[in-house]
Amino acid sequence: MKYLMLIYGNQEKWESIPAESFETEIAKQDAFNRKYRQTGELLGAYGLGDAVTAKLVRRQDGAPVVTDGPYLETKEYIASLYLLDCDSEERARQIAAEMPWADREPVELWPILHDAATKP
Predict the structure, then answer these.
(1) Would you say 69 and 114 are in contact if contact means Cβ atoms under 8 Å apart?
(2) What digits encode the pLDDT tens for the residues 65-113?
(3) By the 8 A CB rule, do 6 and 78 touch?
(4) How do residues 50-64 score in pLDDT, each as one tens digit?
(5) What does DSSP say about strands 63-68 and 55-60: parallel, antiparallel, or unpaired?
(6) What is the C-alpha separation between 98 and 55, in angstroms, rounded?
(7) Domains along the chain?
(8) Whole-angstrom Cα distance, residue 25 to residue 65?
(9) pTM exceeds 0.85, yes or no
(10) Contact 113, 3 (CB under 8 A)
């Protein structure tokens, strides 16, 4: 079964990481990614742009209308997303708990109910 893991953040969080330990924190994340890519359970890991770069797209009179996003006023925003393919929810929870910083910040875990066909 597939699962989506979401990591939230904000500029304040990133700036709270001491400069001298930033490379170490990145190395921990890279090791996590490598470990689960090798098991085949991590299908993708994606870091998102800062919230100020997000856009909202709507359709009005058949044409796209683009405004700045995100839609909700929030202190934190989705910073990264991970796509897992695990044998069980328990296994997905184990992987989420191993996410670097999971001892300080929660990891949101969502089951993916179905895959939409993307190929004809």
Answers:
(1) no
(2) 998 876 666 678 888 999 999 999 999 999 999 999 898 889 999 999 9
(3) yes
(4) 888 888 899 999 999
(5) antiparallel
(6) 32
(7) 7-110 (3.30.70.1060)
(8) 39
(9) no
(10) no
